[in-house]
Design goal:
binds magnesium ion, 8 strands, binds guanosine-5'-diphosphate, Rossmann fold, 6-stranded mixed sheet, alpha/beta
Length: about 240
């Protein structure tokens, strides 16, 4: 029966395609204000289980390099595999610092690696203290830089060429430390898909609209990097955009 053989063949090819897709490395850039949990997230993706609490000595810093143009030496990007509901992806990311002096290093990282997926990690500090704008500053910087196609200092020749047209394929906004701010009532809403309803996201809406205008799809979700809750699921779902 030729018909069924074709189906078997097609199925085989489909399997191969599916398999190989999981090995295509996706460049992911993880940015956000200091102490939002980027290093914890990086470790969560490389190991499994609860990550120890990180203190001041664990803050991420980069040494200065560059003879003529001052820039920071960025840590090596590492590859991680993430899995969720039968889907598997290989992502490549590196753990950058969140302090303001590193903001332009985020851009440099994004452009040099041609990052397709930008992950912005925020936490609930603006809910605790309404005067704190660390999270808004971080997202605002990125949105502004993407909108203006800001060229960071210290780009390679290739990077400078790419910077003229660079735009990420998607942005995932992750509200971390859900173990601290998520209530049982909100958990129900989150489960039903109404994640965006939580006031933690209110301060970001204007910036998110700007991204929509730039045709960069945005997905928002809640995670707990420290306890590994919803981390891989949120990333994999973000890739659906
Ligand atoms: N409660 C809670 N604390 C977290 C979570 N993720 C990170 N933290 C804590 O937040 C602080 C900053 O984390 P770190 O990963 O160093 O942030 P980074 O500066 O963005 O790299 C540390 O004390 C972490 O233990 C989380 O999911 N829940
Ligand atoms: Mg860090």
């Amino acid at each position: 029966m030729a018909g069924s053989a074709e189906i078997v063949m097609a199925h085989g090819i489909w399997q191969v395609l599916l398999r190989s897709k999981t090995f295509v490395p996706n460049h992911v850039g993880v940015y956000g204000a200091s102490e939002t949990g980027k290093t914890t997230l990086d470790r969560q993706l490389t190991t499994v289980g609860e990550i120890k609490e990180l203190g001041e000595e664990d803050r991420t810093h980069h040494p200065k390099t560059g003879l003529f143009v001052e820039k920071y030496r960025l840590p090596k990007a590492t590859s991680k595999r993430i899995k969720s509901t039968g889907l598997e992806k290989t992502i490549i990311s590196r753990d950058l610092g969140g302090h303001i002096e590193y903001h332009s290093s985020w851009l440099r990282d994004m452009i040099e690696r041609n990052v397709g997926t930008v992950v912005v990690v925020v936490d609930h500090r603006h809910l605790i203290d309404s005067k704190n704008v660390d999270n808004q500053t971080a997202l605002g910087y990125l949105v502004n830089a993407l909108g203006r196609r800001t060229k960071p200092k210290g780009l390679s020749l290739r990077g400078r060429w790419r910077a003229r047209k660079y735009s990420p394929k998607r942005l995932i906004l992750l509200a971390n430390k859900a173990d601290e701010w998520m209530t049982p009532e909100y958990y129900v809403e989150w489960e039903q898909g109404f994640v965006a309803r939580h006031p933690i996201f209110d301060v970001f809406r204007e910036e998110l609209y700007k991204l929509h205008e730039m045709h960069i799809p945005v997905r928002i979700d809640a995670i707990s990097a420290r306890y590994g809750w919803n981390v891989e699921d949120a990333l994999i779902r973000g890739f659906e955009l």
